[in-house]
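ok, trying the design again with the full structure, not the truncated one.
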């Protein structure tokens, strides 16, 4: 479970920016089909909004408290850190430039540790308008490019930073020299270009007589085609004894059931 928080209280930010930012990240998290998402529209996060600091920014301890209350192991906090506008033009016509920056952070609510933080910046401009017009911009001026930019950031953040926190486990269903088929597909969030490590576990007896399981990485795969319940992959690289990479991929190291 992931608790999603959104902040947009920097000078120059407008309500539609915060709602767009939160909705876009929520859609990406839900669309990954790997997380239960408690968004800021849910009761727990609404409580968190009400008890935030006077500055309008979330206190980390409050994020952890509300995240735990929502039974979320991780909390994603979205912050708008800069919103600036400049009106530029010549003669009777002018355009408005929007310079924005935001930050996405992940906190582990069980350990109270900030796991990762990623910045994002973008600039947009409106079409030409009469110089004498109002300087205030609205969603119609920047809504579409703003939404597209935030979506791109959300896609990258969710597919890399967030999914890395909750790796997807599956098994090799079939293997040949041409491809390796995994028993996981789009119904649980696997997408083209997703990468998987092929691991092998073997018993290792310690000097005190106890036995532990030793994990060895044998190969790295990249998904090239996805169906509902299976994925077709290509072998990027394989590894021999001591984790040394083979000069060329050796699919003979991969077996069904791994």
């Amino acid at each position: 479970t992931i608790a999603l928080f959104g902040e947009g209280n920097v000078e120059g930010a407008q309500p539609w920016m915060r709602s767009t930012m939160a909705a876009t990240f929520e859609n990406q998290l839900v669309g990954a089909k790997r997380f239960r998402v408690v968004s800021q529209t849910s009761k727990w996060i609404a409580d968190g909004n009400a008890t935030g600091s006077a500055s309008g920014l979330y206190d980390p301890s409050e994020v952890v408290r509300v995240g735990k209350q929502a039974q979320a192991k991780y909390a994603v906090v979205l912050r708008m850190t800069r919103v600036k506008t400049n009106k530029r033009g010549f003669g009777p016509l002018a355009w408005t430039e929007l310079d924005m920056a935001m930050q996405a952070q992940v906190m582990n609510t069980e350990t109270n540790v900030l796991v990762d933080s990623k910045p994002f910046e973008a600039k947009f401009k409106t079409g030409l308008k009469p110089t004498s017009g109002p300087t205030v911009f609205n969603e119609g001026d920047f809504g579409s490019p703003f939404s597209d930019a935030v979506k791109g950031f959300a896609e990258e953040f969710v597919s890399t930073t967030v999914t890395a926190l909750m790796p997807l486990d599956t098994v090799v269903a079939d293997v040949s020299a041409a491809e390796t088929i995994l028993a996981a597909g789009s119904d649980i969030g696997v997408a083209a270009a997703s990468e998987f490590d092929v691991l092998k576990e073997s018993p290792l007896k310690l000097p005190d007589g106890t036995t532990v399981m030793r994990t060895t990485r044998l190969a790295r795969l990249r998904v090239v085609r996805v169906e509902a319940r299976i994925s077709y992959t290509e072998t990027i690289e394989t590894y021999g004894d001591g984790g040394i990479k083979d000069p060329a991929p050796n699919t003979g190291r991969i077996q069904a059931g791994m």
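Keeping the full-length input from now on. Residues 23 and 39 are 9 Å apart (CA to CA).
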